[in-house]
Write a structure and sequence with these properties.
Helix content is 52%, strand content 15%. The protein has helices at 23-36, 38-50; strands spanning 7-10, 17-20.
């Protein structure tokens, strides 16, 4: 069985590793993660309050 190559990107806000099967797919998954992840939203909110 052939395995697909995985592309990995780190979310700059919460440092979570995001995986996709192409660079575009990984970027799309990152965008979805940033819009839906409660933890990521919470971290961004705290960073904005601190002015970072």
């Amino acid at each position: 069985m052939k395995e697909k190559k995985q592309f990995k990107i780190r979310c700059l806000d919460c440092d979570k590793e995001i995986i996709g099967f192409s660079e575009h797919h990984a970027k799309q998954n990152l965008m979805i993660h940033q819009k839906t992840s409660e933890k990521c939203k919470y971290i961004v909110k705290i960073l904005k309050k601190k002015g970072l």
